[in-house]
Amino acid sequence: xxxxxxxxxxxxxxxxxxxxxxxxxxxxxxxxxxxxxxxxxxxxxxxxxxxxxxxxxxxxxxxxxxxxxxxxxxxxxxxxxxxxxxxxxxxxxxxxxxxxxxxxxxxxxxxxxxxxxxxxxxxxxxxxxxxxxxxxxxxxxxxxxxxxxxxxxxxxxxxxxxxxxxxxxxxxxxxxxxxxxxxxxxxxxxxxxxxxxxxxxxxxxxxxxxxxxxxxxxxx
Amino acid sequence: xxxxxxxxxxxxxxxxxxxxxxxxxxxxxxxxxxxxxxxxxxxxxxxxxxxxxxxxxxxxxxxxxxxxxxxxxxxxxxxxxxxxxxxxxxxxxxxxxxxxxxxxxxxxxxxxxxxxxxxxxxxxxxxxxxxxxxxxxxxxxxxxxxxxxxxxxxxxxxxxxxxxxxxxxxxxxxxxxxxxxxxxxxxxxxxxxxxxxxxxxxxxxxxxxxxxxxxxxxxx
Lengths: 220, 220
Fold this sequence. Notes:
The structure is a homodimer.
Chain A: E1 3-10, H1 14-25, E2 30-33, H2 41-45, E3 51-52, E4 61-62, H3 63-74, E5 81-82, E6 87-92, E7 98-102, E8 107-115, E9 142-143, E10 146-148, E11 161-163, E12 168-169, H4 177-196, H5 210-216
Helix pairs in contact in A: 1-3, 1-4
């Protein structure tokens, strides 16, 4: 038994939330699978009351504000969160669909997987320390505790599995929110092209596109 | 006669403004050289009253709001704008310093150049149509009306000259604000390393770094 969605997003921090925003904009369904019992990731768990000064066009706000406003931004897409769920396996079947199993015995299927969480979202074999998590044990190419991706699609060494935010690494990578948002935007275009193939995806702007504005609920 | 600064930023739209924010954070001086008589670029000139829905943590704001809030965000760095100035030549002297000349007879020197503007910021030889501008005429590698850069430093084929926002192109490039902000952040680390060499630049966060917060004026 499994619930199906276009994209399974592992994690629910800012990079996961903005990825969901971009997916929703383009009519792609998603579901969050999150180890914690609430969204926000490190911003909520570690430094919710800390001021952030480098969010573009936000001279100052707190880390929790970033989370709250991103949640407000994805509200039109009616996000669904599976809290308290850590991934125990990801398997791709012959038809190309991924099956994600969780430690608490649930299963989800998806056409693409976005790893947007840290090590907390995955569980190791019994007895292994989570803190020393190595992505290579999951079959990903990676180093420095992160998964290697390309800078065009942000896809991992496993086709159909993408990684953004602190979970990913590439030349020049900085662990900044602005980078996670860019990674999410480019990745979603890659996912969109993959799901819609062979139609070519075109660039659309929220300022002018009627279809994007309808999905946001700001246009009838 | 020329005015000297660490970095000359050609353009004053959102990508230029956020590049200035990142430069200011790291104590690097900058000056804007802008063809128009005001900051904001296309956001101000073409669609200031249009709503924007894809700025992270901003469920909605206008394009002019983006500009106004970015100007507020760089105010601690006392930005200096040279308006009404289009670039007529960029020459690098033997010591590695760039000299930028403008059509109206001014000259500026800088240790690095950031191209963050469209074709309006540059002038062609007499009689050429600006609309058909080709960056290759300036010695840059480029295509589709934009300058080719790498995705680690956002440096052009001319060492010390960088390009971000709509001025640049690389595999996967999207003409989105979120991408321009990411490009600015990584580029500034490359400029910082170039100016400070051989010291290695370390990652600092606005939430926790006293030195960054002092530059922002939010800590004594």
